[in-house]
Write a structure and sequence with these properties.
Layout lengths: L4 E9 L3 E3 L21 H6 L3 E5 H9 L10 E4 L14 E4 L3 H10 L4 E5 L1 H9 L5 E7 L7 E2 L10 E9 L3 E8 L2
Parallel strand pairs: 1-6, 1-7, 3-4, 3-6, 4-5
Antiparallel strand pairs: 2-8, 7-10, 9-10
Length: 180
């Protein structure tokens, strides 16, 4: 089994928000992307075994007017959601418990390279020092408030910059690796 790794791939505003004051995501399209550059997502997802996201992110993705965008298992963390909709029964799986128990369950199924997605879920993983790598794409917009990517950390976490790239001459993506 490969060494477990928890990775983040997410966009933020310059001021560190992942959603605006109304939980909106329209600002993600602030920079025109006429060629639909995936900004490294396809390469990133090739290295991933499964996704882990919270209920809010899961419900947001379900609300997009697109086909289900994932071809890998999606583990949904929620204490409120009782069942996965029938339409996604073989695509998404509901998990409950603390993060250690949840990771054990996922790893026992053979999934070790995990994409951690959704603000609350990422913050929970960071609070328990469970993020190994992060790819953060900065969209050149100031939101002035909203849902922050980072807050409430119990201690300082050191990361090192391993790569930086600019997409469509506007969006900077920095790849960080946790220093342990």
């Amino acid at each position: 089994m490969k060494e477990p790794k928890n990775c983040v791939f997410i966009a933020t505003s310059i001021d560190g928000y992942i959603a605006d004051k109304n939980d909106g995501l329209e600002w993600l399209n602030a920079v025109p992307n006429p060629n639909n550059d995936d900004m490294g997502y396809v390469e990133f997802i090739k290295e991933i075994d499964a996704l882990v996201m919270g209920r809010n992110t899961f419900e947001t993705v379900l609300g997009f007017d697109v086909d289900w965008p994932y071809d890998k298992p999606v583990f949904v963390l929620s204490n409120k959601l009782k069942v996965i909709p029938v339409s996604h029964k073989e695509k998404a799986f509901l998990l409950k418990g603390n993060l250690g128990e949840i990771l054990d369950q996922i790893h026992q199924k053979g999934f070790t390279r995990l994409y951690i997605d959704g603000g609350a879920t990422i913050r929970s993983f960071l609070q328990e020092d469970l993020i190994d790598e992060m790819a953060l794409s900065t969209i050149p917009v100031l939101l002035g408030g909203g849902s922050p990517l980072f807050n409430g950390l119990p201690k300082e976490l050191k990361f090192e910059l391993v790569k930086s790239k600019t997409y469509i001459n506007q969006i900077t993506q920095n790849h960080y690796k946790r220093i342990r």
